[in-house]
Amino acid sequence: MLTPDQARDRAHDIVQRARAAGADAADAVFAADAALDVSIRLGKLEDIGRSESEDLGLRVFVGQRSASVSTSDLSTAAMDALVERAVAMAREAPEDPWAGLAPADRLLHGIIPMLGLDDGGEASPEQLRDAALEAEDAARAVPGVSNSEGGGASASRSVWALATSHGFAGAYAATGYGVSASVLAGEGGNMQRDYAHSSARLRAHLEAPEAIGRRAGEQAVARLNPGRLVSGPTTIVYDRRVGGSLVGHMLGAISGQAITRKTSFLLDSLGSQVFAHGITIRDDPHRPHGLRSRPFDGEGLPVSPSDIIEDGMLERWLLDSASARQLGLEPTGHAARGVGGGPGVSTSNVFMEPGHVPLETLIADIESGVYVTELMGGGANGVTGDYSRGAAGFRIENGQITTPVAEFTIAGNVKDMFLAMTPANDLEFRYGVNVPTLRVEGMTVASG
Fold this sequence. Notes:
Elements: H1 4-20, E1 25-41, E2 44-62, E3 65-71, H2 76-92, H3 125-140, E4 145-164, E5 169-185, E6 192-200, H4 209-222, E7 232-238, H5 240-253, H6 256-260, E8 281-283, E9 306-310, E10 313-314, H7 321-327, E11 335-336, E12 344-345, E13 350-352, H8 359-362, E14 368-380, E15 386-397, E16 400-413, H9 414-419, E17 421-423, E18 433-434, E19 438-447
Parallel strand pairs: 7-14, 13-18
Antiparallel strand pairs: 1-2, 1-4, 2-3, 4-5, 5-6, 7-19, 8-9, 8-13, 9-10, 11-12, 14-15, 15-16, 16-19, 17-19
């Protein structure tokens, strides 16, 4: 695999070739990845997979016309053909008044932030096998666990580079590790499944495989013999591992593309109250070792920690340069770029600030409610905000989480849900989007 410096130079070289071939402007992305994963089941090795890839994407502009091409053939002849094809395609493309590179005066200059995303290591197949076995063994050892869907462990390393024709060239490397277990409890028609996993940039930060497996097993056993709910209005409490999906609906609604196309349920909400008072949601691309940390965005702009929601108020859209031009605003450093096509938008390490009370206090006054630990299907309508998901979890009775329930649907409108939301104080950083346990009033349950 190329070093970050070599990857940066390769992206810069293809941009220079594009300019020489007649492009008015260009940018290029180089992405390399190597990954190894091991899966086991019932104590036996089931599969070992290794993948490696190197891909390059080029976007060129001729006036306000643009074209994007990509290739995994990095030979000199292929690069020459790629440039010629891209410029020829751009000359025939329709004009786009919003097309173009990011503003030159906004580009990141100087030293790229070091975020601790690459531990330089490489796990062996034997090490990954042992971690997967330990996780599955711990899960199967939990009384009541009857079968296993397997344990897994993975390790990867990637290098990502971006170069533009107007003054940016940068690259960085990142590693990623994961361990998981998925098991079943019970017998026959009363079997229940659950899982647990841990992901980290640095191998040393992974949760212990034994703890991951034990959690998977205990969660599966706790779901045995689920009951049914009575349909009607109720209070829903979202477990941390599923609550982040609610923030995800908000992030999609404030993306530049949704706003410019007028397909957002938050279309006229900038600067207004969209969450309950006291709720703050932040995006921190500089979080050390963060699962979604990055030193610059997909257009070469600097990134920095920012508040998306502050005390319930919507503070910003998420804009790449094209959507910013269309809205008469400035790009926000949220551009995301793959090898193919132009930029979109993406956040980094998004999290909701914790509330002020523990889970026990959050649910203490709920006489009858539902603690949701799994969501299935459905989602939120991006235009209206109407929300409906299949779910499973546990009853809340007289302020206590009690017996398991399954096969029900929860529904509402996310605009109302945001305003009726209360967070607990138990925030943990495990995922790309992290939230504390969330209580939402005024939802509707329909039993299956």
